[in-house]
């Protein structure tokens, strides 16, 4: 069986998950940024996997690079498609939204999983890091691989009963006509565009790196430039300079 596993990962959680699944299923691991220079993405795979981090509980969107990737997929009505989103707290409507995007390309998501991983969106280090990695391997990895290898239908994972009501309320608020512009305006402020809050989300996201900086603790190790998945960091005199095609 020809299995292709496409992944996007900002800080390594989704990469860790994608790697383990590819090892257990003998699937080919393909970083999404490496195929984005094609206008259309066609594949002969029997199984396509899409693995990525949750951004904004999927209420606003999935990571834009993943959305652009899905919109380039061609002839996807035959392969079995599965998705795994890694999340730090709650994934809300992420899988439903991805399914809608895949539907618009003529395919469908046959199974969708959420994997709880360390939260990377806050500056405070996540204390349960090791436990979360162990739990994922013990509790989820085998289920996902068995399901994928058998091309089984699987009702999408949903948030825990504690998180669900919070996400539902957030979803309702965010769907209001007033909230989305407020949210985009605050993002655009972060991106340094106080004077022009009306840029489309796609452009604002790319410019979010306007708020990124280093300080005297930067040791010029150059790791940031080496690992940025979309090559958005150049080194100038050993220090990172962001290039404004950020994916956050
Ligand atoms: C811009 C941004 C938005 C995020 N939004 C959410 C969110 O809404 N819900 C959540 O549970 N985690 C959220 N996270 C956390 C990541 O989804 C989570 O840590 C993920 O495992 C990171 O995967 P990666 O290391 O492959 O990038 C967000 C992270 C970023 C950078």
UniProtKB/TrEMBL annotation:
Residues 3-141 form the Flavodoxin-like domain. PROSITE patterns: 4FE4S_FER_1, 4FE4S_FER_2, FLAVODOXIN_LIKE. GO terms for molecular function: FMN binding; oxidoreductase activity. Residues 210-238 form the 4Fe-4S ferredoxin-type domain. This is EFR1 family ferrodoxin. It comes from Methanobacterium spitsbergense.
């Amino acid at each position: 069986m020809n299995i292709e596993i496409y992944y996007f990962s900002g800080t390594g959680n989704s990469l860790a998950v994608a790697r383990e699944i590819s090892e257990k299923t003998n699937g080919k691991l393909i970083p999404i940024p490496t195929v984005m220079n094609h206008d259309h993405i066609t594949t002969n795979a029997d199984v396509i996997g899409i693995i990525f981090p949750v951004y904004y509980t999927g209420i606003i969107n999935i990571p834009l690079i993943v959305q652009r990737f899905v919109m380039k997929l061609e002839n996807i009505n035959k392969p079995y498609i599965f998705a795994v989103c890694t999340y730090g707290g709650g994934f809300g409507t992420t899988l439903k939204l991805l399914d809608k995007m895949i539907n618009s390309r003529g395919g469908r998501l046959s199974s969708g999983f959420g994997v709880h991983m360390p939260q990377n969106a806050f500056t405070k280090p996540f204390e349960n890091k090791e436990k979360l990695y162990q739990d994922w391997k013990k509790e989820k990895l085998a289920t996902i691989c068995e399901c994928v290898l058998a091309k089984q239908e699987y009702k999408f994972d949903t948030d825990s009963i504690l998180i669900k009501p919070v996400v539902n309320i957030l979803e309702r608020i965010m769907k209001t006509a007033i909230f989305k512009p407020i949210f985009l305006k605050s993002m655009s402020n972060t991106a340094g565009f106080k004077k022009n809050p009306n840029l489309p989300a796609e452009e604002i996201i790319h410019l979010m790196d306007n708020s990124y900086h280093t300080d005297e603790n930067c040791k010029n190790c150059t790791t940031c430039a080496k690992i940025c998945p979309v090559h958005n960091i150049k080194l100038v005199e050993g220090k990172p300079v962001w290039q404004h095609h950020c994916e956050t």
